[in-house]
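[Target chain]
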Amino acid sequence: MDCIKYPTEKLLEILVQEEEEIRQSDWYRQECTRVKDIPNGWLDMTAKMQKDLVKKHGFEDEISCDIACNMLRRARYIYPDNKIFWEVPVYVRNNLAKPGDLKEGDVVPDIKIYNRVKEEVNLLDLMKTDKLTLVLGSSHT
């Protein structure tokens, strides 16, 4: 059995800096433009770019690759005192996400979302069953 590999803080710094260079490149911008009309197109393309990046640094088996990608995306939370993880990634510097205003018991707005097989559905249609509905929203990049 292969040994699962984890990136060190120092290697995460390198990965974050290399990822930022890629995200600022003409190639990345062109790829984002190419997939702009595909649901989650740029997210899927970015996830592949991140996997290719960590594989280049030796995280080649599936589990180590997934762990390294996850740590790359969460570096600012894993090492909250490291300024590099807060200042370098564009998706951290320019993050406009906020917790939102909905509270438990509020009426959910009817919005269009994409399910796991990338079909567009109305949120309230998913909730018209007698089963409990759990909706998780996040970015996989």
